[in-house]
Design brief:
160 residues, alpha+beta, HIT family, subunit A, 4 helices
Length: 160
Amino acid sequence: MTEMSECLFCKIIAGEIPCFKIHEDVETFAFLDINPSAPGHTLVIPKKHAKDIFEIDMQSLQAVSSTVKLMAEKIRGALQADVTVLQNNGRAAGQVIDHFHFHVIPRRAGDRLPLSHIGPRAAPEVLTEIQKRLTAGAATAAAPQYEKRVKDALSDWDRL
């Protein structure tokens, strides 16, 4: 876990590291990404440090969500672009900075950015098994009879 005193985004909020600020209010901060996927790529962060979706409190999450909408509207108006809103949690998901943040990325037809949620079509039995696991409750371990079937199904899905 990143200490707040070492957190890059906390240092930006504190003014210790310069940024290209777009917006600031009591609870949130938005600035241009210095490694943008597209011109206008904006990061929206809570001022209160939280590593990821699992640590952020509901008030901060709601405030950040409101600012994300505001930034998307600004991008659409000022840059005449659509937007992709992206939020990663953990290294496997692509999170690089251990401070909760959203990416608001301007998009244009044909921009060829590799940001798509579309994967191969899942088999109904795979979706059924995952649905059962997710609706059983987060604290409940998967029933043993499903564990192997889900593991096998996901392995098959990965090979597609």
